[in-house]
Amino acid sequence: MNTDNRKVVLIGTGMVGMSYAYALLNQNACDELVLIDVDKERARGEAMDLNHGLAFSSSHMKIYAGEYKDCENADIVVICAGVAQKPGESRLDLLTRNTEVFRSIIGPITESGFNGIFLVATNPVDIMTLITAKLSGFNPRRVLGTGTALDTARLRYMLGEYFNVDPRNMHAYVIGEHGDSEFVAWSQAMLATKPILDLCGETGGCRIEDMKDIEEQVRTSAQRIIKAKRATYYGIGMAMVRITKAIFSNENSVLTVSAMLRGEYGESGVYAGVPCIVNRNGIQRVLSLSLSEEETSKFHASCQTLHEAYDELNLGL
Ligand SMILES: NC(=O)C1=CN([C@@H]2O[C@H](COP(=O)(O)OP(=O)(O)OC[C@H]3O[C@@H](n4cnc5c(N)ncnc54)[C@H](O)[C@@H]3O)[C@@H](O)[C@H]2O)C=CC1
Ligand SMILES: CC(=O)C(=O)O
């Protein structure tokens, strides 16, 4: 990884891609940003628009619309290309359409000689990340999805509001599918060093029904935002910058990204959101959680949903 010129290639310059690009620029999180989209004119316009903000920023980022050959010496290729949900659609409903999009993208990226890290945001993100790993043939450590990073941020925000505590002091994870089968690992949730389940057992601490309500609010956040404004993009854009920084700064930070899990999910394995140590190698390690029995079966059910949806595609990869 070239720390003197941190280079990102972004594929898909729609709402999510450009929210990420805008947050990258504002946080000075890379040195060179290449924008690629099937709509080349759009990518060119977005590059112009971002460049016109440089004079107001402390960043010296080089930003331009490029080609797949620009991936050759990139450190990270970020994929946000494809279709997004319409009101009422689930993330899994996008699978067939976005698989076709990825078939047209991954080949040209690998043919460029790219040898860095893939970060995938396109939905259904866990399966699209698995497809990226299969089509590219990359070591799964270097292929990660945004997973439940956004859901975890939503959870921490809502818990912070509930307890009136800085969300950065709320330590709790949403795990499994970034989708309808995701859940909160309440047995591991803490306010600073105090288990939330213990707090709920204390008079006046909190109510378990309220925690369940927060979990439901997290699970349905995307649908509610999509109904209100057609798409979600700022939150995911910032989550992606957070992951990008963890990679470039070799942070060894714990983030709930989508990572390859082997074991009982057949030869293909499965990608799902789990807390992982992220650094310049991508996924350094998946952290194993001490889940309760009920949480363990929820986690397996969530992974099984993802595994079956991937299997039904019959990609033969
Ligand atoms: N992982 C997460 O937490 C989240 C994921 N998403 C997902 O991100 C994806 C993008 O969403 P939006 O940006 O809102 O959609 P959008 O429609 O605004 O942008 C998609 C972009 O992809 C481009 N594109 C389509 N096919 C392409 C191809 N073959 N090659 C290159 N570019 C191509 C389009 O031209 C468009 O610019 C969706 O799948 C959405 O569901 C959205 C929010 C959160
Ligand atoms: C759209 C989506 O996946 C989200 O906002 O969570």
Automatic annotation (TrEMBL):
It comes from the Bacteria. Belongs to the LDH/MDH superfamily. LDH family. Pfam families: Ldh_1_C, Ldh_1_N. Keywords: Allosteric enzyme, Cytoplasm, NAD, Oxidoreductase. It is an enzyme of class 1 (oxidoreductase). Catalyzes the conversion of lactate to pyruvate. One of its GO terms (biological process) is lactate metabolic process. Substrate binds at Q85, R91, N123, P124, V125, D126, D151, T152, A153, R154, T232. Homotetramer. It catalyses: (S)-lactate + NAD(+) = pyruvate + NADH + H(+). Beta-D-fructose 1,6-bisphosphate binds at R156, H171. Allosterically activated by fructose 1,6-bisphosphate (FBP). This is L-lactate dehydrogenase. Its EC number is 1.1.1.27. It is found in: Cytoplasm. Residues 7-145 form the Lactate/malate dehydrogenase N-terminal domain. GO terms for molecular function: L-lactate dehydrogenase (NAD+) activity. The keyword Nucleotide-binding does not apply. PROSITE patterns: L_LDH (PS00064). GO terms for cellular component: cytoplasm. NAD(+) binds at residues 12-17, 37, 42, 68, 82-83, 98, 104, 121-123, 146. The active site is at H178 (proton acceptor). Residues 148-311 form the Lactate/malate dehydrogenase C-terminal domain. InterPro entries: L-lactate/malate_DH, L-lactate_DH, L-lactate_DH_AS, Lactate/malate_DH_C, Lactate/malate_DH_N, Lactate_DH/Glyco_Ohase_4_C, NAD(P)-bd_dom_sf. The keyword Cell cycle does not apply. It comes from Fumia xinanensis. Pathway: Fermentation; pyruvate fermentation to lactate; (S)-lactate from pyruvate: step 1/1.
